[in-house]
Design a protein that fits this description.
3 helices, elongated, DUF2191 domain-containing protein, single chain, about 70 residues, mainly alpha
Length: about 70
Amino acid sequence: MAAKVTVTLDADLAIEVMLAVGAGNPQDAVELIVRDYLARSRRTEARTGDAADAERTTRPHRTVEEG
């Protein structure tokens, strides 16, 4: 069984989340939002790379010397 965590949210925020995802209760709504966020993050990393790939794009490009 997975561990459970209780999070307290402002009622207005909980209602907005419920409406955004179409969930019937705040627990399900927040869980759906978090799961979607994590899934998007993984898809983004797969498309753009991770922190180790940043080195590849920050190296200065060699320029052709004129002379």
